[in-house]
Design brief:
The protein is of the alpha/beta class. The strands form 2 sheets. Strands 4-1-5-10-9-6-7-8 form an 8-stranded parallel β-sheet, with helices on both faces. The protein starts with a strand and ends with a helix.
Amino acid sequence: MNITIIGVPYDLDQPYVGKGKAPDALLDRGLAQRLGELGYTTVLAEMIDLPEGDDELVARIGRLMNKVGYEVARSRAAGFFPLLVGGDCLVSLGAVSGLLDPLNTAVAWIDAHGDFNTPETTISGYLGGMPLACLVGRGLSQLREHCKLVTPVPEQNIALIGARDLDPAEEQLLLGSSVALVRGPELERDSATLDRALQNLAGLPQLYLHVDIDVLDPVEAPGVDYPAGGGLSLAALTQIVERAVGLGNIAALAITAVNPEKDVDQRTVSAALTVIDAALARVMNH
């Protein structure tokens, strides 16, 4: 099987700082070689570059994610599986745009946070806390248009897994939505909740699997910008990822939110590599 590694070395619109250092860090730790050992023929897409410009932030990020979408679509047209390495969670907008069929795309979003804020609910104003809401058509319509993602993903196509740090207004939006919310503590108490959420995604033609590494407990993944205690173990996360891949319809995978500048003993980079191994080994063997 062929795979394209699509590196997005940006933290919002800033290149090679913070989370933008993750693609190089993962490649330096042998990402391509590990995929080769799994049996993949690996191609490294040229690191996506955003030309300098005076556009406002939303427009700049939109242009960047439009490029991400182009690389995803090109990869799939060539028969390659796209592995996106962020960067922040905004890469999801480019990934889903590049899958070309949002109405028939399932999204398994594994994250400590909801990323379901809108410009009206956000406390911080941070765009990286809004991409899942944007994907389903709640706010930031101009950003979706820049990404060529004019049609939102239906809320019932989404499972948010592992969330444990939600803003109050964001939580109310989620509870009033059709998104399947499987909170972090529920995963330990009742695996049936996860099974139901994943099965709802199984009947759709394609799945985008999104893993924000901060879903892990900070002890296992200290290299993140927004750590939240009480997270998943690496073993639990790999099992969830394997179950999502086991649905049989995965079309793209993204690993996001690794910040090498805050990593300790490269634990977070190592954890991200383990998650990628688990997911793609299951893809290969499925």
